[in-house]
Amino acid sequence: MREIPVLIKPGDADALAAGRHGDPFAVLGPHPANGGVVVRSFQPQAAEVFVLAGGEPIAMTRVHPDGLFAARLPDDGVAGYRLRTICPDGLVEEIDDPYRFPAQLGPLDIHLLAEGTHMRLYQVLGAHPRTIDGVDGVLFSVWAPNAERVSVVGDFNSWDGRRHPMRLRHDAGVWELFLPALGHGSIYKYEIVARGGVMLPLKADPCGTWAERSPKTASKVWHQPKWEWSDADWMQSRQRHNDRHAPVSIYEVHLGSWRRNPSDGNRPLTYLEMADELVEYVSAMGFTHVEFLPVHEHPFGGSWGYQPVGLFAPTSRYGSPDDFRVLIERLHQRGIGVIIDWVSAHFPSDPHGLHWFDGTHLYEHQDPRLGVHRDWNTLIYNFGRTEVMNYLCANALYWLEEFHVDGLRVDAVASMLYLDYSREPGDWLPNRFGGNENLEAIDFLRRMNQMVYAEHPGAVTIAEESTAWPMVSRPVHLGGLGFGFKWNMGWMHDTLDYFSKDPIHRRYHHDELTFAQLYAYHENFVLPLSHDEVVHGKGSLIGRMPGDDWQRFANLRAYFGFMWMQPGKKLMFMGGEFAQEREWNVDCSLDWHLLDSPRHLGVSRLVSDLNRLYRTEPALHQLDNDQRGFAWIDCNDRDNSVLSWLRRGVDPHDCVIVVGSFTPVVREGYRIGVPESGFYREILNTDSEWYGGANIHNNGGVEAEDVPWHGHSWSILLRLPPLSVSVFKRDG
Hints:
Belongs to the glycosyl hydrolase 13 family. GlgB subfamily. Residues 252-599 form the Glycosyl hydrolase family 13 catalytic domain. The chain is built from 14 helices and 38 strands. By secondary structure, it is of the alpha+beta class. Among the domains are: 10-96, Immunoglobulin-like, CATH 2.60.40.10; 107-221, Sandwich (Immunoglobulin-like), CATH 2.60.40; 628-730, Sandwich (Immunoglobulin-like), CATH 2.60.40. It has an eight-stranded parallel β-barrel with strand order 17-20-23-26-27-28-29-30, surrounded by four helices. β18 (260-261) and β19 (267-268) form a beta hairpin. Mean pLDDT is 95; it is low at 1-6.
């Protein structure tokens, strides 16, 4: 022990042994000393440690009782040395010393990370397999600028944070360490000591790309050969599939409850099983896109993924990251786009997550009036911090680049835009101008959208935004937020309210079906019937329809017909397409047996045919977001609860006539005006017996008469089925 003053500075050994040394590379590894080299290693599990440097093993001296060892070597004999450890039970291991490797993050990466402009930070932070000086291992890097010490822990070091403390790159507040011999599947977390020596709960990797399966919470190293994509045709053409002039009909899916395997403990299907079953189903139903509820790793299944902890990791509940790639690739190969719900508004307070990450409010606001969501008991990102904005923007690009996702539906945008969102007076802080707008969140959303469209022109972003905030789906350079589309929550609320009412009262609520046309072209709208409408006691869509069984199904078919014939892209949550009877349960499969019932099967057939008609008729999609594509024929017949309108394509001769009759009576001889003479063929009727209806129709179509009506020179005389939507197109 006489050599301690020579080998190590006073206090360093105690600090290392106690796990509170903030600069381990200053002590551990090789260091010049009196014309030679001193090698130090902390191995608390070992009884003996030897340096292997090409000749005879050199025994290291225990210089601290808790396991700090040191040895002197000649200067020319230290390169590429290894360590041999012998444990008290006789276990012998030979390892490469992590502390003999130099810093790995380059000056440009450090500069961009510090500046908050590293748009590919997921290529730097996190766990990345590397080969350095011929040694295979994993480079770990994590942003924790206010920590006193950060260590990588796992089974490989008995979760002992003293053994692998990391190197702090002061300029960026990033800690890094290369650990030899680790690789694919290694389980790890970060042990972080906050200022004042406070030990924090073990943290999962904020940039981890794989995780243990819930309820376990550790990160895992992902190291597989780079994925060779087979969807080049789709990627080259997807811009026209996502365009606002394209037919976009979205099937919203929760992966864990779409369909389950009853022969295997009723477990959810895997990504690979979905790649067969879901892809085939969506293709057969005619949807153009699938939207997955959040696939980010999340600790609580009951959150449906909306409280994510691992923003860069597809949840392990259904398989590996590459399994998820297979699912996306298969959808693309069938011409189906993939949108994921992306949660940037908030994150949960689970101790292994981002909350209080380095002993400070690193990702969230310190003041709860800015940093806590009262409704969800979650934390709000500090969008004004450049590193946090960088983290989220890079994550958006990550899903587009690494998984070929075609779009991001951004959750809870309204909660991001307003500082007083769901808050009482006195429980929020105004912005620097005294207003309630969250200026930092606005800047973030604009920057994120600019990056997405600049880097991936074929991709699309969609806002779930429920207020009258202007220009959500208008370009940033025009003063908008930069989204491609916005959910029309007002349309959803009004129309659901209308169709849930007894038809006898509908004449008093006629405006609920017409009001949306007053603002329908202020934004690029998606008409959503989402998961939020079939949970929390709201029941199912069919369960909200009034009347006896026949009327309930007729109402639902009419509602779907009305939705598909209105301007705007379409979104339907799973189960709605076959009239799921019970409220959605995240822990159960959809009730697929209902398709054995003719009425449920009829609804499914209708949705499939609506999708087909929507895709094939330019008038029904080309001008979805342009007022030139829609005109009322008659929107004032509230006494009969009848609406009629026309849809047009870019070519004005592409014209479709739609009539909705929303009472349970047959209307004979109902006349509406039409723009041209000719035969108007009935191309869809929601009352068809094929869909479970009464089969009241117009014998295939009607000839226009030279009778002016509704401001048109011609008109047609129709037979309107009860609770129905009928669609006509002029031949020729």
